[in-house]
């Protein structure tokens, strides 16, 4: 009877022994995607790639503001006002369409770059885990002890590549 009451205690000790030899590591993937040199290069590449289209959007925006200033003046004829209002509406529609297209294209390109980077990050994490002889590497945790954080080692490995 006493043995039956003590089985939970034996179970706790058995589980503790199993996990005593387990080495766990933590990696902050958000930080890696922000700070890794390949991620920074990819962000700069995307910025450069989309700069001409953003400049075109700024040009259309400036044109719209100029047209709005003309409309705000009271000294234009009613027929000119209607023509300018139609121009402004069309310009606004073009601006919104351009903005939508740029956002869609940027998101698609960002996802492409991220997919390639994710493969390199996973390989670096695996390399660090094998080098440190880690049994488990987690990416998200409510709490983590800084001792088990291997993010800096992964970042260093990504710089070397």
Structural class, by secondary structure, is mainly alpha
What pattern of helices and strands is seen along the backbone?
Answer: HEHHHEH
Q: What's the alpha carbon Rg, rounded to whole Å?
A: 29 Å
| Total domains | 1
Largest sheet: 2 strands, parallel
CATH architecture: 2-Layer Sandwich
Mean pLDDT: 87
Contiguous runs where pLDDT drops below 50 for at least 5 residues: none
What is the CATH level 1 assignment?
A: Alpha Beta
Shape: elongated
State the fourth-level CATH superfamily.
Answer: Skp domain
N- and C-termini, Cα separation: 63 Å
CATH topological fold name:
Protein Binding, DinI Protein, Chain A
- How many helices? The count is 5
Give the DSSP E fraction (strand runs of 2 or more residues). under 5%
- DSSP summary, beta strand count: 2
Q: Which sequence of strands runs across the widest sheet?
A: 1-2
Helix content: over 70%
Task: Summarize the entry for a quick read.
This protein is mainly α. The chain has helices at 2-20, 29-35, 37-72, 78-132, 151-160; strands at 24-26, 136-138.
Task: Walk me through what this model shows.
The structure is a single chain. The chain has a single domain (24-160), classed as Skp domain (Protein Binding, DinI Protein, Chain A, 2-Layer Sandwich), CATH 3.30.910.20. The protein starts with a helix and ends with a helix. The chain is built from 5 helices and 2 strands; from the N terminus they run αβαααβα. It is elongated, with a radius of gyration of 29 Å. A two-stranded parallel sheet has the order 1-2. It is mainly α and 161 residues long. Belongs to the skp family. GO terms for molecular function: unfolded protein binding. One of its GO terms (cellular component) is cytosol.
